[in-house]
Amino acid sequence: MKEDTRKTPRVGLFVTCLVDLFRPTVGFAAVKLMEEAGCTVEVPMAQTCCGQPAYNSGDREDAAAIARQTIEAFEGFDYVVAPSGSCAGMLKKHYPTLLKGTAWESRADAFSGRVHELVSFLVDVLGVTAVPAAHRGSVTYHDSCSGLRELNVQKQPRKLLATVEGLDLKEMANPDVCCGFGGTFCVKYPDISNKIVEEKTASIAAAGAETLLAGDLGCLMNMAGKLHRQGSRIKVRHVAEVLAGMDDTPAIGGGGR
Amino acid sequence: MSGREAILGKLRNAVGGASDPARQEAVEKRLARPARGLIPARGQLEGEARVALFCQMAEAVTATVARVGKATDVPGAVTHYLRSRNLAPRVRMGADRRLKGMDWASQKSLEVTHGPATPQDEVGVSHAFAGVAETGTVALVSGKDNPTTVNFVPENHIIIVDAKDIAGDLESVISRLRRKYGRGEMPRVLNLVTGPSRSGDIEQTMLLGAHGPRALHLIVVDG
Amino acid sequence: MEVTSPQFKQKSRKALADEQLQRAMGKAKSGFIGKRKKAVEALPEFEALRSSARAIKDHTLAHLDLYLEAYERQVVASGGRVHWAETAEDARRAVLDICRSVGARTVTKGKSMITEEIALNDFLEKEGVRPVETDLGEYIIQLRGEHPSHIIGPALHLNKEQVEEDFRRVHTELPQARDLSQPESLLGEARQILRPQYFQADVGITGANFLIAETGTSIIVTNEGNGDLTQTLPRVHVVVASIEKVVPTLEDASQILRVLARSATGQDMSVYTTFSTGPRRPGDPDGPEEYHVVLLDNGRSSMLGTEFHEMLRCIRCGACMNHCPVYHAVGGHAYGWVYPGPMGAVLTPSLVGVERSGHLPNASTFCGRCESVCPMQIPLPRMMRHWREREFERGLNPATQRFGLGLWAFFARRPKLYRLATSLTIPALSGLGGRRGWFRSLPLAGGWTRHRDLPAPEARTFMQQWRDRDTRKQDGGAA
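Predict the joint structure of the above. Result:
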């Protein structure tokens, strides 16, 4: 244990496709949090997406090809960390299933052991107990489904948010109920997805917080998109932005720079 | 019989053949020596604590409970209950030996009829085979002296439970059944009753007295 | 029952616009979830009991042929008869033959999803036998000519005003001026109307929650007591049950009972758990003179040993649909066949074919709440995904979807090309979003923007910016 703490953990950041394309701030917040916790963070260029669109559409072949590509890209890191419970869940829980019975089975299992969702990595693996950030105002936190149910991410973000100076956490009713995003579900069944996100935004509004936080960009874009369509003034951010003290940037949908 | 063979044939194919003696043995062993699973700690109490839990759990499911010292007190307790509920002094019961042994004649105005229940019966009286403290459940068995209709047709059901018959868990009741009826044998009907009849089918509003008894009264006999 | 699952989208749109339904679903949702939670929290051993219950079913399924044979032997030994039915048609015939053999004109019915699955009521009616549903919810929907919208709360989709309307329409012998404004009065009226039916019926039909191989016993679990009146008063009792209902011993049933009611209604035990073994015995003052079991396969044996094997552990508690956001949104009827919600999304394709029910396993966000509450730990999302795989293999998904997925996968499997493509398109899209930062509509994103706005990308991609940072670092290092 002592030897480990002296050695600097080398982390490969799995950026996730949505963060890469839509909200790079989340990626930089993740890097900052992990560097401040004493890690070296690198970003392999050979990553694209975790493969969920294919996997959840029944296309195992493409999903498996992407899984192999990702495992290869992250060979040699002590840890593989993603700022998303959904993508981390895919890498950690589903890659081994996907590659079971193939030549990649043992590599997938070993890879799985190194994968973590960002906030649970900070708290459970690195032992971070507080962040030096400050955030003036109230927030409410939505538990994204995969992080919550596949990776048990629930207490960790709340634990760290409690240490953010000036932050007031106002819990919404049923924070653990799905927001209706569901990847391709939200465009394949837009009307049902809409009904579910409407219930969610009603809970969010009733919580009375100024900012909505969550750990998954897909869910955040869904909820932010609905809130904006409804004319709400509630700001939406990834939890890592607040924890990293990067809340001076525009919130999601706050305009280009 | 062709349906039988077709279904069993498909099942055998799917699970790996019938001729495997290991499978046969596993099944025979399990049936010959039924194993208890996990028994929750809640009901694992002795003596008065167990009886008290039984009463508490029964009341939690809106049964009413009265405790009497001995079997001879039961007819009086029944009369008392009927009066308190403003019910006519008339009850239906089977020819159960334990019920028959009670001095019903001591209750002057009380009319007792025997045999299966009819739509005219307002109150049924049964004697329980056992109670289950864990859930406040009463176990009733059918037989020539214990008509099942008494348990369901009248709007009010009074069940006599001997405190000594209250077990901690259902598994203990099952063991007793096996001792009484023999391995692999069962009474025609075993009714586990946990509170009075209810329905939540209209807007999830829980209402008592759907088709079975609207009221369930337990008389626990301590001695 | 006709399979209308292909119209899932149209039916769900209708459901979303149905104010009565939405009001009823709102009530149902909070009720079930809160009650289950309370019951589970009050039993520290609940999680361990789930594993124990699961192990019992896993063992039983691995020896299903042998346990069914043992069960049959015991039924026969106790004076009952077993009728094996490979298909729904076989089961309907078996029930009708029994009814005919006693000249039955009226049958009462306890709540049974299996008789829904084999569409028994319509069939009996056509053959001149009148089925009377006695469970309050089932009775209501029978009056309306509907099917259950929930496996344990058949009339969950209705409000009391709708029930009042139906009762006034059908019970014309009762005074018009009567007060039916409260659920109590509706229940009282149903009780009064149904009471004589139990005594008039020639045959009583129930389902079964468990069949016990050890003793040849069938078990029904109910709250109303209608199942008991149904099986006690007529001359003949017919149990219609599917083959996976069997468990080895009484103790095994007891174990699963501890998770069943808690998961379903949040009760520790349902009010009536009734164990029936054979017909009336010599000297018995009541009870049926004949006891029959119709054992239904209807496709279940083909699930055994496949990736859908674990679905056969299902005990029909309804917890998965009670916790499903999609079920909450559209209700049970949109699913288009007997079994709605997550368990229906897995079971329906298994029983009627995925080509007729492909929407069901697709209409899920994979939020995983169903699996997390399933008392039998059935991996429902995983099996829905397996159905999507079967569809994909067979090319059953729409062509546009396949094309889009194929295009995306082409790039996702080629990181360099992916980098290039995204580094060109994302900054452009960001620019288009402009200072507003949102799109109200966008070509090819109609599914998204129909109901919500799309945030524009911040600027350049993370990868572009990261390269700059690396370059800066290296430059800084060199300087």
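The longest strand of chain B covers residues 156-162.
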